[in-house]
C-alpha cells in the first residue's frame, strides 16, 4: 500500500464485492444484505445515474446553468445513504444526488438550484437532508454542530434504536485541504459528536490531483485528530453500506465521530464547466471504468440468479420514464420573480428592504405587458 | 435599578437569556471557567453547566460553523469572538452561511445566532485587538448589526438579540466595558433596531455609536460653552439603520456629522451620508461630514490616542459644518 501518497492506485481498502461481482469478506466487515436489498441498490444506482446523465444533457442543451455530476460515485452515495437510520441527518456538498435519492428528495428539486430557479428547493427538516453547500468544507462544521445538538438533546447513547441519531457530513478530497474541515475534526473529537465524515475521494479537485491535497492516504488523517478512519472501496456499494452502518451505529451509541474515505473516481467533469481531457489521461478513466459500481452489482445478481433478466429490463424502462419525467418537469419549472426574493432575507423584515421592494415593484409596473414579454431572463454568472 | 458596568450588564443580560430559554447556549474561547478575557461571561458556566456555556477550541470558523449546525438543530447559539480582529477567520461562516441560510432556504430555515464581538481601540492592545470591522457586516444582507454604548442598552439589547430569529452581529465597545451606568431591569426596553437621541440640540446633529457616543457627548458639553447646541444620536442599530430618527434630526438641524472609529473610506458614515443626501437634500445647510479613523491599518498603541477621533476632532467637524 502506498503509505506516502494520497493517491496510490494499489490501495488497501475494505471491499465486499469485487469488480467481477464476487462476494469477499474481511475480518471486520461482512455483507449482511439480502439479494433483495442488493437488487434494490442496483435500482437506486441505475436511477441515480440516469438522473445524472439526464441533468448533464439538460445542461448541454442550455436548460441548466451548471451540473455537478456524480457519475461513477453511485456506490459511495447509495451505500452510505441506505445505511442511514430514520432519525439521522445529512449535510451534503453539492454532488450528493444519490444520497438525496435515498432520502426521497424529488430529483427535480435538485435541478432547481442548477437551473437557477432557487437556491435549494427542499425542506431540510422534513427530508433530513440539508441544503447543498457550495463553499468547500463549510458544511462539515454544520454537521458537527448539528451532531452536538443531537447529543445535547439526549438523542445519543440511549440504547433506544427509535431515538438515537447521528449525522453524516459529506466532503470531497479537495475539502480535506480546507481549514474548516480540520476545525470540524477538532470540534467533533473534542465534544465526541455523533458525526460520520464521509469523504468521497474521487481523485480530482477540479483539475488538481489528490497528490496536491495530501501526502498520506486521507483515511489516516482522522487518527491525528483522535478518531478512527477507514478506507473503503467507494465503488463497492456493499462495503459502503456495511462500513457506514457500523460508523453510524458507533456515533449513535455515543462512541463519537469517525471518518470514512470512499476511494472512488469521478468519471465525468468536476462540473459541466470544466474539461477533464485537459488535465487527466484517458487511460486513467478506462482503468476506473473497469471498476464500475453498477456493473459489478449486475454481475453479482446475474451470477447468483438473484433476479431474472426482466428485472434489468424493467429498471431500464423505469429509468427512461424517470428521465423523461424529470426533463418535462424541469422545463415546466416556473420562472422565479426577483420581487419575491426580498421576503426571505430576514425573519423580521427591515423598513429599508420593504421600501426597496415596493420601489422595485412600482418600477416594474411602469413597463407595459408587451415590454415584459420582450424581457428575456438574464443568465446569471455561475461558478 | 442597578448601577452596573457594561461588562456586568452584558453578563446579567446573558444570564437572563440563559434562564429564559433552555435552547440558548454560549460558545467561545475561554468563556467558561475564566469568564472570558473581559469577564463578560463570568460565573455563567458555573451556574448553567458546560453544555450551555461552552469553552470552544481555538478556532473561530469552528465556533461559528458549529453554531450554524446547532441553530439548525433548534438551538440559539451566542458566539463570542474574543477580539474583533479574530473575527476574520470566521468571515466565511458569517457572511456565506449564517447570513444566507434563511434566504437559501426560501425562509424555511432560521438562523437565530448572535455573534458577540468586542471591538474598537483605546485599550493599548497589540495588533488585531482594536479593529472596527462593522462595515463588512452592515454590507452583508441577512445580517443585523447593533452596538450598545451604555450599560442599560447592553443589558437589554443582548437579550433582544438572543431572542431575535435573525442573526445579529453584536459589537461591544471594549474600552467602555468598565464604565458604569444605570440599568433599569424592569422597564419595557425600546425596540432593538431603533436609535436614541441621547442629548437634544438644535445646531448640528452628531451621529455616533458604541465607543464614540461618550466622546460625542463630551464634545457636546464642550460645544455648549461656545454657545453651540449639538444633538447627539446614539445609533444603537447599524443595520438596519433607524432612518426615521436620523432623517428627523437632519431636517431639524440641517447639519450632520457622523463619527466612528473605523476608517472613513467605505465605512458606515458614507452610507449614512448618502441616505441623508437622498432624504434631506433640501433641508441641509452643509454637506454631511464624517469624522473617523484614517485609512491606515490600526496603528501601534502608542499612536492610537492620535488616531482615534477625540473631542477636538469632533469639534473640528462641527466648525467645518458650521462654516458652510
Automatic annotation (TrEMBL), chain B:
Residue ranges that the Swiss-Prot or TrEMBL entry lists as coiled coil: none
Keyword Oxidoreductase part of the UniProt annotation: yes
Gene3D superfamilies recorded: 3.40.50.920, 3.40.50.970
Domain Transketolase-like pyrimidine-binding, first and last residues per copy: 4-179
The keyword Phosphoprotein appears for this protein: no
Keywords on record: Oxidoreductase, Thiamine pyrophosphate
Reported cofactor(s): thiamine diphosphate
Organism: Microlunatus elymi
Protein name: Alpha-ketoacid dehydrogenase subunit beta
Signal peptide: none
GO MF term set: magnesium ion binding; oxidoreductase activity
Alphabetized SUPFAM superfamilies for the sequence: Thiamin diphosphate-binding fold (THDP-binding), TK C-terminal domain-like
Amino acid at each position: 500500500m502506498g503509505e506516502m501518497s494520497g493517491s496510490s492506485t494499489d490501495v488497501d481498502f475494505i471491499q465486499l464485492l469485487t469488480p467481477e461481482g464476487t462476494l469477499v469478506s474481511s475480518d471486520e466487515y461482512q455483507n449482511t444484505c439480502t439479494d433483495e436489498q442488493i437488487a434494490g441498490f442496483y435500482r437506486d444506482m441505475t436511477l441515480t445515474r440516469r438522473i445524472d446523465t439526464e441533468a448533464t444533457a439538460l445542461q448541454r442543451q442550455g436548460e441548466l446553468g451548471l451540473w455537478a455530476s456524480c457519475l461513477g460515485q453511485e456506490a459511495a452515495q447509495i451505500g452510505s445513504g441506505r445505511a442511514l437510520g430514520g432519525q439521522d441527518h445529512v449535510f451534503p456538498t453539492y454532488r450528493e444526488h444519490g444520497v438525496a435519492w435515498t432520502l426521497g428528495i424529488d430529483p427535480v428539486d435538485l435541478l432547481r438550484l442548477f437551473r437557477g430557479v432557487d437556491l435549494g428547493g427542499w425542506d431540510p427538516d422534513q427530508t433530513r437532508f440539508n441544503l447543498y453547500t457550495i463553499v468547500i468544507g463549510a458544511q462539515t462544521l454544520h454537521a458537527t454542530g448539528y451532531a452536538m445538538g443531537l447529543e445535547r438533546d439526549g438523542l445519543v447513547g440511549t440504547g433506544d434504536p427509535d431515538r438515537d441519531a447521528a449525522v453524516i457530513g459529506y466532503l470531497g478530497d479537495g475539502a480535506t485541504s480546507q481549514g474548516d474541515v480540520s476545525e470540524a475534526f477538532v470540534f467533533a473529537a473534542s465534544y465526541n459528536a455523533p458525526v460520520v465524515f464521509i469523504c468521497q475521494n474521487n481523485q480530482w479537485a477540479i483539475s488538481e490531483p489528490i497528490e496536491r491535497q495530501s501526502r498520506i492516504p486521507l483515511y489516516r488523517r482522522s487518527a491525528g485528530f483522535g478518531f478512527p478512519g477507514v478506507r473503503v472501496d467507494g465503488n463497492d456499494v456493499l462495503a459502503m453500506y456495511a462500513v457506514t452502518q457500523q460508523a453510524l451505529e458507533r456515533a449513535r451509541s455515543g462512541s463519537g465521530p469517525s471518518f470514512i474515505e470512499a476511494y472512488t473516481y469521478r468519471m465525468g467533469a468536476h462540473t459541466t464547466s470544466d474539461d477533464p481531457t485537459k488535465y487527466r489521461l484517458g487511460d486513467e478513466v478506462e482503468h476506473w471504468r473497469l471498476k464500475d459500481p453498477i456493473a459489478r452489482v449486475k454481475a453479482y445478481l446475474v451470477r447468483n440468479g438473484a433476479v431474472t433478466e426482466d428485472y434489468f429490463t424493467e429498471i431500464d424502462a423505469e429509468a427512461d420514464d424517470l428521465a423523461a419525467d424529470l426533463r418535462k418537469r424541469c422545463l415546466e419549472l416556473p420562472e422565479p420573480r426577483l420581487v419575491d426574493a426580498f421576503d426571505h432575507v430576514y425573519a423580521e423584515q427591515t423598513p429599508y428592504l420593504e421600501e426597496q421592494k415596493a420601489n422595485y415593484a412600482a418600477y416594474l409596473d411602469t413597463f407595459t405587458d408587451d415590454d415584459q414579454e420582450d424581457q428575456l431572463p438574464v443568465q446569471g454568472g455561475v461558478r | 435599578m442597578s448601577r452596573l458596568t457594561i461588562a456586568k450588564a452584558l453578563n446579567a443580560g446573558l444570564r437572563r437569556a440563559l434562564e429564559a430559554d433552555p435552547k440558548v447556549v454560549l460558545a467561545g474561547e475561554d468563556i467558561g471557567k475564566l469568564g472570558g478575557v473581559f469577564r463578560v461571561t463570568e460565573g455563567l458556566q458555573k451556574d448553567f453547566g458546560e453544555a450551555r456555556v461552552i469553552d470552544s477550541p481555538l478556532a473561530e470558523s469552528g465556533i461559528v460553523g458549529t453554531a450554524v449546525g446547532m441553530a439548525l438543530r433548534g438551538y440559539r447559539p451566542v458566539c463570542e469572538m474574543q477580539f474583533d480582529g479574530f473575527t476574520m477567520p470566521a468571515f466565511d461562516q458569517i457572511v456565506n452561511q449564517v447570513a444566507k441560510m434563511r434566504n437559501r432556504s426560501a425562509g424555511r430555515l432560521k438562523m437565530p445566532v448572535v455573534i458577540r464581538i468586542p471591538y474598537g481601540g483605546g485599550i493599548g492592545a497589540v495588533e488585531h485587538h482594536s479593529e472596527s470591522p462593522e462595515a463588512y457586516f452592515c454590507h452583508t444582507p441577512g445580517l443585523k448589526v447593533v452596538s450598545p454604548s451604555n450599560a442599560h442598552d447592553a443589558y437589554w439589547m443582548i437579550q433582544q438579540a438572543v431572542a431575535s430569529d435573525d442573526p445579529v452581529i453584536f459589537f461591544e465597545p471594549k474600552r467602555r466595558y468598565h464604565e458604569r451606568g444605570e440599568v433599569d431591569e424592569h422597564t419595557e426596553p425600546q425596540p432593538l433596531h431603533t436609535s436614541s437621541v441621547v442629548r437634544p440640540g438644535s445646531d448640528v446633529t452628531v451621529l455616533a455609536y458604541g465607543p464614540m457616543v461618550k466622546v460625542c457627548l463630551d464634545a457636546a458639553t464642550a460645544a455648549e460653552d461656545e454657545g453651540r447646541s449639538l444633538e447627539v444620536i446614539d445609533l444603537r442599530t447599524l443595520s438596519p439603520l433607524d432612518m426615521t430618527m436620523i432623517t428627523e434630526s437632519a431636517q431639524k438641524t440641517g447639519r450632520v456629522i457622523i463619527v466612528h472609529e473605523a476608517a472613513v473610506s467605505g465605512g458606515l458614515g458614507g452610507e449614512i451620508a448618502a441616505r441623508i443626501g437622498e432624504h434631506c437634500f433640501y433641508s441641509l445647510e452643509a454637506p454631511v461630514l464624517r469624522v473617523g479613523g484614517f485609512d491606515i491599518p490600526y496603528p501601534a498603541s502608542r499612536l492610537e490616542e492620535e488616531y482615534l477621533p477625540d473631542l477636538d476632532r469632533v469639534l473640528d467637524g462641527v466648525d467645518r459644518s458650521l462654516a458652510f
